[in-house]
Amino acid sequence: MSANVIAMPLELADFRSGGLRPRTDAFRVALLIPMCGSAGIWGPSCISSAQVAVEELNRANGIDGRPVQLIMIDAAFEAAEPIEEIVNDLIELGAIDAIVGMHISAIRQRLSKVVRQRVPYIYTPLYEGGETTAGLFAIGETPQEQLGPAIARLQKTHSPRKWALIGNDYVWPRASHSYAKSYLKSYDVDVVMERYLPFGLPCMKTVLEELDASGADTVLVSLVGQDAVNFNRMFGRMELHRKIVRLSCAMEENGLMACGAGNLERLFAVSSYFGGLATECNAAFKERYHALHGDFAPTLNALGQSTYEGMHYLAAMLLDHGDLWRTCSTGNAPAVRYASGRRTSHRPGAERPSVYLARADGLRFSDFKPL
After folding, report:
1. 166-199 in b/e burial notation, b at 16+ Cβ within 10 A?
2. Strand-pair partners of 220
């Protein structure tokens, strides 16, 4: 592990006894990522991508003229330690200078009440939209940017008449499905099933039997990480691909490998980034990624790339705008130019990266269609 990384979690007693003292020679970024539970499958790619950003920043001038150091904290919904307590203690002790978070929206909502503009907070993955907390910057895609165009493309190419909506029981799936229902009204199609599942549901068979009986010919799958994997494995065993098309906004390359090639027929994913995209920005990012981590590095995907982007967004925002972050939020963020595997610059809400609909092809995505 790089010397620029401190592994967490540590016991809170270690913080208080001086195990993680404030420092002036390093700019410490709390990298909040899931390390266990349903979303834990995303962790290695997120860590590896953020490390590339740290290496690049430290070859230049770091952040605020200080070398960058990551403190990795388990931000899984199922984590044993309350994330609010850990983050609050770190901020109060002066042990972190900023947060870059790639975790579910339920965690972001809890943390937004704790951070309170004391340090900048960059939230990197796709999310449900509507974040207005000052000092918090959500740079990922919203349902309007991803889901609407993807539904329109599938309606055009597959003409489904009955949709099902299945997701985990928290804010992002519920908000996304609310948007989907509203959007589908213009196509005069029926939503015949809507279900929200707890994290870590041990068996998906009952849910899939209900899906089969519903008569749906397309299903929007808004399940997280391993839950999506378990769903797709059972979906394949039951051969539901013969009559149902799957669409996901959160299925990525790690998930494909875990599902198995035989369980992925007629599965589509929508994202602004895929590891296989043939763009100049992605080719350059992949070269730097594998130069640091080698040929057997964790798989590149949208959620991992987002942590790379989040680190560079943080650095560029502080360099260009100083303390302006304290009074701004996602909706009125200043223009920021920064390194990305997607594109070179954007301000949340304007000049957004391109979005693609891709088809699962064995254990990779292919047939990328810009939306």
Report:
1. bbbebbbbbbbbebbeebbeeeebebbbbeebeb
2. 165, 247
CB 270 within 8 A of CB 147: yes
Maximum Cα–Cα distance for the chain, whole Å? 62
Which residues is 165 bridged to in the sheet?
194, 220
**Residue range 196-237, pLDDT digits in tens:** 999 999 899 999 999 999 999 999 999 999 999 999 999 999
Q: How many CB atoms lie within 10 A of CB 248?
A: 23
121, 107 Cβ separation under 8 angstroms: no
Q: What pTM value is reported for the model?
A: 0.92
Do 100 and 32 meet the contact criterion of CB atoms below 8 Å apart?
yes
Least reliable range by pLDDT among 111-125, 247-261, 307-321, 338-352: 338-352
Domains of the chain: 5-142+279-332 (3.40.50.2300), 147-275+356-370 (3.40.50.2300)
